[in-house]
Design goal:
Blueprint lengths: L2 H11 L7 H8 L8 H7 L4 H12 L15 H6 L7 H12 L13 H16 L15 E2 L2 H12 L30 H18 L7 H10 L10 H17 L5 H16 L4 H12 L3 H4 E2 L10 E2 L2 H12 L6 H9 L5 H13 L5 H11 L20 H20 L6 H4 L2 E4 L1 H7 L10 E4 L12 H6 L8 H12 L16 H4 L6 H8 L3 H15 L13 E2 L2 E2 L3 E3 L5 E3 H12 L1 H17 L8 H12 L5 H9 L2 H4 E2 L9
Antiparallel strand pairs: 1-2, 3-10, 4-5, 6-7, 8-9
């Protein structure tokens, strides 16, 4: 049996393999190599890249060359994609595998440790020491359609009726940024165009009934049909005035007179065919709602290849869809038309106004909900109501609301990012407070509650996040630890090396073993331990929470052990200890992750390597003000990629 098969079988069963002496020695030496300062100095030399290429050809391209490309890696292609930092994840994984001696495979020729250190050091220099000051690229946001949520919000604010027709649209996907507003996933499928036609009719039926009965209906009609033909006002004049106000709001930019005239002519054509004015204008408004100018989020077309500042109207649209997930309101549109929105004092005042508006709550429900995963509670993840009658829709709604309202409070109160971890308050109603065993909270309304226990506080103790990182009916320290590393901190563990696998079913079903003991067995093989040494302690410290986030001190008649130790030796226990270790050891990673996530969400695209310049500039601005959320919002809206665009080779542009 080959060495790789022995190791794979051992990891699958969660036992330590019985290897021959020389193979035991190889497994024992799989601790990562330590790159020295001398290695890094050598890697910075002008001839370093030239010297590395023969190493890659000798040890790597046999499996990762033009003809084989095992694991989807073709090294020559990767080397030709300059700068190498554009494929940071790929090169980081190569450094991990080489540095832990997982690659090349044991049955292939092996480089000595000095050669391994040279290769790892060269990757570290290429990736970690890249000079971002050499890049001046703001990126671009390709033309994209509105998300379903943006569509609902936009027709609500355009017509003053909240009918939410997008609930009948096909489900959306999240982009590589982790958000559903990422341009690389927002295409117009044929089935969606059919739904848009029906949605437009539904919206107009609600907003412009031909015979309004209620005061709300009359108000909605008057909002759009603020002028009627009659007396000195002709059909053309009335249609021109109505469409002259409606089209720029619907299309979110100034509309040329020729475009308005086409819509006016269509109204007049219907009048000549016998339609009443209200019906004619309604049909044309319905047509506007299926126009690409309404459905697509497009900006002023670029005329050159270099960086270009966006227009004030495009800035208004970027602001409103970032902070509100909807169209610009009258105030933003007015300032954009005056050309004053981009003035620093004016922009700052508008951000303050927008954050105080209820529409800014989408930063909690959409941004935080998608970043942290709480949005999936009750949809992708839920408890069987028959076996778990306590898990009501209202409870899950409150759990999601806790996370959303907590995040929005941090933004509105301009709290430091560290409050994500150590806040001593949360948002509860009576049902959720009872679930948490917190007293003196009455009624269904969610409200801020000061906490007097270390069991809750910050994101770590919120049931929505503890649930979406568990399996149905049981906790998963691996999922929870991976969530902390990947989602919360933005430092995902590398992909499992060859020979590693998930925790086997046989091991998982050993009822006599505690979860901690099973994970210890799983880590016996260094291929498993290379990642799980970092993942498992974080998840094990949360074992006092059951699979739906309820606090427990015992499991299967045994006291819950929530003690943990990081690979570098730092010991801690329980959620309180985890909070302390995250703030003491990982706060910089948390700050960087929040910056990157919010910048990606604001731009509606995944970040590229050249966006790191903006990330670092935003971080520098925040450092002068204790890394506060309000400072982050303002720094993003002033950032180079938020205020500029540049055509990207091989990509369509607005």
């Amino acid at each position: 049996m080959s060495t790789r098969l022995v190791l794979f079988s051992a990891c699958l069963l969660g036992i330590s393999p019985g290897l021959p002496a020389q193979e035991e020695q190889a497994a024992a030496t799989s601790n990562p190599l330590r790159v020295t300062d001398a290695d890094l100095r050598q890697a910075r030399s002008p001839q370093a890249t030239r010297d590395i290429l023969p190493i890659l050809r000798r040890y790597c391209t046999g499996c990762h060359g033009p003809e084989t490309s095992e694991g989807g890696l073709q090294l020559e292609t990767a080397l030709n994609r300059k700068p190498l930092v554009r494929d940071r994840d790929t090169w980081n994984n190569i450094a991990f595998l080489v540095g832990h001696r997982f690659m090349p495979p044991e049955d292939e020729e092996q480089p000595d440790d000095a050669t391994r250190r040279r290769l790892v050091a060269w990757i570290r220099v290429q990736v970690d020491e890249f000079d971002y000051s050499t890049i001046n690229n703001p990126g671009d946001v390709p033309i994209r359609r509105l998300t379903h949520h943006e569509y609902d919000n936009t027709v609500r604010d355009l017509f003053g009726v909240d009918v939410r027709p997008a609930s009948q649209f096909p489900s959306e996907l999240s982009g590589t940024s982790g958000f559903d507003n990422s341009a690389n996933t927002l295409f117009l499928q044929p089935i969606l165009m059919e739904r848009y036609l029906g949605a437009a009719e539904k919206v107009l039926n609600a907003a412009l009934p031909l015979e309004p009965q209620t005061e709300a209906q009359k108000k909605a009609v008057a909002r759009i049909l603020f002028v009627r033909p009659g007396g000195d006002i002709s059909d053309r004049e009335a249609a021109s005035r109505i469409l002259g106000r409606f089209l720029p709001r619907a299309f979110r930019r100034p509309v040329p007179a020729s475009t308005r005239e086409r819509y006016v002519s269509a109204v007049l054509a219907r009048r000549r065919s016998g339609s009443g004015f209200n019906l004619a204008i309604r049909e044309i408004l319905q047509a506007a709602l299926v126009s690409p100018s309404f459905l697509m989020k497009a900006e002023t077309p670029l005329t050159g290849d270099g960086p270009t500042a966006i227009s004030d109207h495009d800035l208004a649209s970027r602001l409103s869809y970032f902070l509100w997930a909807t169209m610009p309101d009258e105030r933003l549109t007015q300032l954009a038309g005056q050309g004053t929105l981009d003035q620093p004092d004016m922009l700052d005042a508008e951000i303050t106004r927008m954050l105080a508006d209820p529409r800014a709550e989408t930063l909690g429900t959409r941004f935080a909900g998608q970043w942290l995963g709480s949005v999936h509670l009750g949809t992708r993840i839920r408890a069987d109501p028959i076996d778990n009658p306590w898990c009501t829709e209202t409870l899950m709604t409150a759990m999601r609301a806790e996370t959303a309202m907590f995040f929005v409070s941090l933004v509105r109160d301009n709290q430091p990012i560290s409050r994500l971890i150590d806040a001593r308050y949360t948002f509860l109603n009576q049902e959720l407070a009872k679930f948490y065993r917190i007293g003196n909270v009455r009624g269904p309304k969610m409200r801020r509650v000061e906490l007097k226990t270390d069991q809750r506080g910050g994101l770590i103790g919120q049931a929505s996040l503890l649930t979406v990182t568990s399996f149905p009916g049981r906790t998963s320290p691996i999922n929870r630890g991976r969530w902390i590393l990947a989602d919360l901190l933005g430092t995902p563990p590398p992909p499992p090396p060859p020979g590693a696998s998930e925790l086997s079913e046989e091991l998982a079903e050993r009822s006599r073993l505690s979860r901690r003991q099973k994970l210890e067995l799983h880590r016996k093989d260094r291929r498993c331990a290379a990642c799980h040494d970092a993942i498992d302690p974080l998840g094990l410290s949360l074992e006092n929470y059951d699979w739906f986030g309820r606090w427990r001190t015992r499991r299967r008649r045994h006291t819950v052990d929530a003690s943990a130790s990081l690979p570098e030796g730092h010991k801690f226990s329980g959620p309180a200890g985890l909070r302390r270790i995250l703030l003491a050891r990982r706060q910089e990673q948390l700050v960087n992750q929040v910056i990157r996530k919010m910048l990606a969400y604001s731009l509606g695209r995944q970040l590229e390597y050249y966006d790191e310049t903006a990330v670092r500039a935003i971080r520098k601005t925040m450092a002068a003000n204790e890394f506060r959320f309000g400072t982050l919002i303002r720094a993003i809206t002033r950032s180079y990629p938020f205020r500029n665009r540049q055509r990207q080779p091989g990509r369509p542009s607005s």
